[in-house]
Amino acid sequence: MRSLANVPRSSDNHIGREELKMDRLVTDVLVIGGGGAALRAALAACDAGADVIIAAKMPLGLGGATTYPVAEMAGYNAGDPHVPGDVECHYQDIMAAGQGMADEKLAAILAEGAPETIDELESWGVEFDREGDGYYTFKSCFASIPRTHVIRGHGEPIVQALIRQIRRRPDIQSLTGVTIIELAKKNGICCGAWGVDSRGKLIYISAGAVILASGGASQAFEKNLNPGDVSGDGYMLAYESGARLVNMEFMQSGIGFSHPLMNIFNGYIWAAHPLLTNSEGESFLEKYIPDSMQPDYVMDEHRKHFPFSSSDDSKYLEIAIQKEIRAGRGGRHGGIIADLRHMKDDYICHVPDDCGLHHMWPVARNHMKDKGVDLLTQKVEINVFAHAINGGVCIDAEGSTSLPGLYAAGEVAGGPHGADRLGGNMMVTCQVFGKIAGTNAAKWAGIHRPQTESTAMYPDDRLWEILHRKADTQGLIHELQSVNQHHLLISRNEAGLMQVLGTVERIGRQLAESPRQDAVNMEAFRLYCLITASRLMGEAALRRQESRGAHYREDYPIVNPKLDRPMFSDQSI
């Protein structure tokens, strides 16, 4: 893959990067990000003896996907180590859902490390739903047995608990309002990063080790279940530094409430067979399913998992919703009309409870009512949303990437998940691999000390020019999100993917050729990150000529056994 934006050196009269005033900081471990994985990594690095700087775009607790209020609860997977075979079953379920795309070593580490994280989080004040003398668990997405624990309020309790721990450790410094724009390398080793603060001032952070924990890239899509700061920065930083990525075609997506508020439409709701109609009041699912199927059967298949998967017949729900909306038959607010008014207690009690409906529906209903939406008295609209990327920067068992000195954890990292991802596995992955990355980054930094020489290092000329482009960034971002929503989310085919990549190329040129301005334009940087992530996802999806899990190709609708292996992305491809 070639460079994503060939920005010419400007001949304008302006202050060059060498003339800039730049703050310089030194730390043992630099953590990039402010969500669950980043905070856990920072704690682990500090507890392993390192000085730590957290560089985050937003104040801690206000950024990242972990705390974003798009669900009534967070699912959190962990087997019971006291039940023979339970942890092994978790591992087997990860591998089965991954369909040959998950790293078996990382999957085993995740399953084995999950139980102790519950004890740890509880000791820090996180509450899990209880039932009798034990935990309440239910069988979540793609699982064979119940193991998903429930945390009310999504991931907010986890992040607040981690923040409390961080505040007790004076060796952890938080730099908020800082966007990391480039990783620094010397002799092939990652040795720090450049960032820009909220005033547009350049910062150089020299570090013995760097941990990427900046989340995914769902903002590349028009409809997504993540905050605005989740814009693919980590993928861009890793790719530009020469690190390897994997499984970027497996973009997890699913159905969510889109109006009057945004929230995940959890899989258990389908067990009650909500009524779906288009703007013309027509039931439409029948048009998109084989004659041998009934709509209730498709919904029953979807009650087993929230995300879209090409691996079973539940796929027809997302396909039908997307195609109806594309055809202009969405409701007043662009979505499909969903009627859940029949889902009262006397109805729900007769619906099978193999997916957690009886316990979770009152939680969801009350959560929505607290936000002003009474699902028992009013219709709502639903749509298809980007959720999380199952791939990312390749890591090994120590959380290390292919670039020495660079570690990764959380959604930005690839390997622990595959074509499909177990519901409740992302939250626990952040904790397990956040701890692993932090501990090992501290060990690395203990040997490879941060550089303290006075010789100035500056970011790449080309990237520095991107930061000074005066472009219609909002318009270009919207255009990119729109083409991705239509052709990179749910239903894919060669023509649509080529349209995505063509749009990416054109928007990249427009950004590169925009006039230069003196002030730093962080929205231009955000666009550049989204361009990078879109290209990585689009090219991987184009190369995988089959359908597998979250990746669905209309022109290659079945699994191809010859492609039973992960696909990698780096600058050599």
Compact summary:
The protein has helices spanning 36-47, 86-98, 104-123, 156-167, 233-240, 295-302, 315-326, 345-348, 357-370, 425-447, 461-466, 473-487, 494-512, 522-543; strands spanning 22-32, 52-56, 73-77, 130-131, 134-135, 137-138, 148-152, 172-176, 179-186, 189-196, 202-212, 245-246, 251-259, 263-264, 275-277, 336-339, 380-389, 392-394, 406-408, 413-414, 491-492, 552-553, 568-569. The chain is of the alpha/beta class.
Map the helices and strands.
Elements: E1 22-32, H1 36-47, E2 52-56, E3 73-77, H2 86-98, H3 104-123, E4 130-131, E5 134-135, E6 137-138, E7 148-152, H4 156-167, E8 172-176, E9 179-186, E10 189-196, E11 202-212, H5 233-240, E12 245-246, E13 251-259, E14 263-264, E15 275-277, H6 295-302, H7 315-326, E16 336-339, H8 345-348, H9 357-370, E17 380-389, E18 392-394, E19 406-408, E20 413-414, H10 425-447, H11 461-466, H12 473-487, E21 491-492, H13 494-512, H14 522-543, E22 552-553, E23 568-569
Parallel strand pairs: 1-2, 1-11, 2-8, 11-19, 18-20, 21-22
Antiparallel strand pairs: 3-7, 4-5, 6-7, 9-10, 10-11, 12-18, 12-23, 13-14, 13-17, 15-16, 16-17
Helix pairs in contact: 1-4, 1-10, 2-3, 3-10, 5-14, 12-13, 12-14, 13-14
